[in-house]
Design brief:
Order of helices and strands: HHEEEEEEEH
Number of strands: 7
Shape: elongated
Distance between the termini: 87 Å
Mean pLDDT: 79
Number of helices: 3
Largest sheet: 7 strands, antiparallel
Oligomer: single chain
Structural class: alpha+beta
Length: 168
């Protein structure tokens, strides 16, 4: 008899628990929406497939060809910070093999959506070795101009290749 009362009490308790849950609005866990950065794996970036997209795509606020070309040209220097939506690439300090007493840092800005020379800005900072340390950073505008031209040339090559592919 005691077992029946205990079983009845358990069933009544379960009934109250289930009745209390019937009004609960249980929703599945919402996944983050938006593109995921291929660099960080977090929401807010671009899918890697977007980098081949036409520069009129609404998903990228800067010219995709200039962006890809900038990443390719800057690949010889370790990257420090990459902002896809802001269009900026910042590298770490890097010493060229042929100039061990000098190091450079690149700042690349893709500032337009069109493939034009004024849509890319490069700043190169250089430091000279000085008594075991590094001296004051100065801008190297000549090297910056050369890198800008390399980026523009590479972006034009990429555009020509994509046009050739689409007409075949």
């Amino acid at each position: 008899m005691k077992t029946i009362h205990s079983l009845a009490a358990t069933l009544v308790t379960l009934g109250f628990i289930l009745a209390g849950c019937s009004g609960a609005d249980i929703q599945p866990v919402a996944e983050e929406e938006g593109d995921v950065s291929f660099l960080t794996g977090k929401t807010g970036g671009l899918k890697i497939a977007d980098f081949g997209a036409d520069d009129k795509s609404d998903s990228m606020p800067v010219n995709a060809l200039l962006w890809r070309a900038s990443l390719e040209i800057a690949a010889f220097v370790p990257l420090d910070d990459v902002d896809t939506f802001g269009g900026s690439i910042l590298t770490e300090w890097y010493s060229l093999a042929e100039r061990p007493g000098e190091r450079i840092k690149l700042m690349i800005f893709v500032v337009g959506r069109e493939l034009r020379s004024d849509a890319i800005q490069v700043r190169v900072f250089a430091q000279q070795a000085d008594n075991g340390g590094w001296g004051t950073a100065t801008r190297d505008d000549a090297l910056a101009s050369k890198i800008e031209e390399l980026i523009l040339t590479r972006a034009r090559e990429m555009r020509a290749a994509s046009i050739a592919e689409s007409t075949e």
